[in-house]
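Support request, please re-run this one:
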Amino acid sequence: MTQKIHPTLQAITNRIAERSKTTRAAYRAKIRRAQQDKPKRSTISCGNLAHAFAACSAGDKTALSSDTVANLGIVTAYNDMLSAHAPYSDYPAEIKKAAAALGAVAQVAGGVPAMCDGITQGQTGMELSLFSRDVIAMATAVALSHNVFDGVIHLGICDKIVPGLLLGALSFGHLPAIFMPAGPMPSGLPNARKAEVRQLFAEGKVGRPELLKAESQSYHSPGTCTFYGTANTNQMLMEIMGLQLPGSSFVNPGTPLRAALNTHAVARLLRCTTENSPTPLADIVTVKTLVNGMVGLLATGGSTNHTLHLMAIGRAAGIRLTWQDLAALSDLVPLLCRIYPNGLADVNHFQAAGGMGFLISSLLESGLLHHDVKTVLGDGGLSAYTKEPFLEDGRLAWRDAPENSLDDMVLRPVTTPFRADGGLQHLTGNLGSAVIKTSALKDKHMTVTAPAITLSDQNDLQGLFESGALNRDFIAVIRFQGPRANGMPELHKLTPILGILQDKGYQVGLVTDGRMSGASGKIPAAIHLTPEAMADGPIARIEDGDIITIGGRNSRLHIEVPEEIFSARPAAAANLTQNNTGMGRELFSMLRNSASSAEQGASLFTWDEDL
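Re-run finished. Output below.
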């Protein structure tokens, strides 16, 4: 496939490559050393090898006694409480069966934790959420440290799990790897009705039983939640980056097609392990691949959590991404999808309208993706990812994705987008550096100027709301919510309140060093503000009544206080004692103290030094 790349896309890619030249070379050197140092099973001591296959069948023991048979490690995020991960219960047995049919062996190398932001939202446990990503990365490394695997299958789907698995896998980038999704649950209560009930509850017009009924009708069976949050954004990213099979992201669990895709994924990974055409993970995750991931994020209006995760993933591979890279791509890449919370449709509707195959095809035709990348299918580039899987007489096959969207209220081509830009901006000014998701903002809310109300706890806003003190124009400044303060929890409790006030006609906005994920929705929200209050960022010097401008159009974040007055102010202090203990938070104190800035991925790992 010959392709003409958009010159701006190429220029951005070149800038990232030049900036990353030293660190990428260091990462590649590390991977070469690992490839050279990787022992063959035939050279491992008998004691080591006996421990490695002690629980295997007699046939597998014989097979693993030499180097002639591939051994696939499975790293799984299975638990049966989380709907998205419950389908993974049967995957190891299915993978082992598929591997055996192809003359290979598969073993569960280890498990990683999987927590749900939907369960911990607004609860104490949410303060462990972001750092669970780096714990997962370390757990992945522990699983693979046995050093007896020829390839790795990663089973994970939700918010921090997939980024964590990938971070860990990149430290073992000399091994081929494939990601295997579980798929979304079937559609439940329409998103418009769910949002309506949530807002009615916030206004006190319906009670808890009505709210719980609506939520249960939305989240009702195994599979990922169907809205386009971080979990489903993960799946889009793994597909557009070539780390899982084409068209596999949004196939429902428990279906014959899902089972056929899983079996084929095992076969593809085995092809990647062959000595004549190996495809290690490090060869797939390149500058071009990560640029493709950022394009996908913008074109679909994906979760703002990936403004953290992509930065960390890039650094793990020796690639230095910045928020300005995302902003520059956002000016180029149009918004092609309207999926809740940026629209009313869910991911099942997106899949039915043409899904990833149509999306990737349209982006490729417009020169907005790099075709010449390696994927888990090998060296063929992204052309295979313009196709969709189906069953033909019970056998897996692929066909071209639809040439036209089957629902242009959900999915559109580059030629007729929902917006000309990708809906994500990098805000800079005298308050620091932040990101804003603009894809769901109406034009009249793209810029807001209003006096500040300063808080250090999202719950305090509820009290002000109930007292009627918020019936006016204001910008809520919620500080001490960054990674070093309390682990950077998502602040979803703010969304219904701010949405109600905006609907009443007030000019409202949010400035925070915390997270909002994709739920910032229709409210202008400057999030992930860096430096955070805990690192003596300017946000710690904001006072009630200060006039702040959030400018999504001009990428501006500005406080109208003379510099000499502002800099002379003492920084606010927050009592975070209550955030240090309980619900396991005491175990995470070292992580909070060590976290990098949000702009560097809010990571525990100093990748540049480690390389």
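The longest strand covers residues 447-455. The chain has a mean pLDDT of 92.
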